[in-house]
User: Fold this.
Amino acid sequence: MSTRINTNINALNALKSLNDVSNRLSVAQLRLATGKRINTAGDDAAGYSIAKKFNARAEGLGQALNNIGSAKNLLAVAEGNLNNIVDILTQMKTKTIQAADDSLGSSERNAIKAELQKLNAQIDLEVEQATWNSNTIFKKGSNSTFNFQIGAGSSATNDTLVFNLLSSSNVSFSGGNTSFKAAGLNVTVGSTTVSSSVYAQGLMSKIDTAIEDVSEALSYIGTVTNRLTYQETSLTVAKTNTESARSRIEDADMAYEQLQATKLQILQQTASAMLSQANVGPQAILSLFNK
Assistant:
């Protein structure tokens, strides 16, 4: 038993242990509350920096995935309008085949011509309606080229996909008339009459070329969509692996932290008890003064 009571060394040691345990318990409880092993830079300076970099990359990959989804939606709009145009052209071809038959008279051919003109006007309307976020898809101009950001970097080769329907296929559209670049074709019935079988067959040939060109444009859209799908799969895997790497560094092992918290709670209680006993210890000196 120490006979020096002016400074209670045992109590100070118990207090130091109690403060240390309380601080460690506070850290364990914070980790359990947040689910993170690193909550401040002081917890693990190097790990904190690395985890933030991984998190930034994962967020970037997530946004690139969102961009791919938007790009696919744009392509779906373009594909839908082109499918409608193919259907219209198919109907126009059917009508020109009908008009090529000399069993028809001039009034019947005029009726077919009127219908063809209406169908052609609908093609022009399809062109006008093919827009995405105020950008026209089928018209020449700077806004007909779309640079899809499909990666989390700045590489023009690896992280960007250029989509331009007008420069990548034989089909092009301009003004109020639908034209097809491959044959310099202008499918406007007003300038091509079906008043005879010869004229009807000439228009039929132009429509066949138009169908081929629009089909080529649909094929181009299909290849771009497939490229986006593969990139989407690749980015999903990359994002998952990046999140896994970040989690391994930053996230808390909840089972371990709960084990630590339970142990520290017990140590806190025992340290408090020992501090209480250390404070009582010097009172034994009073027995020296008893007579």
Q: What stands out?
A: Residues 47-250 form a domain with the f41 fragment of flagellin, N-terminal domain fold (CATH 1.20.1330.10). The radius of gyration is 39 Å. DSSP finds five helices and seven strands in the chain. The beta strands are 131-132, 135-136, 146-149, 160-163, 171-174, 177-180, 185-186.
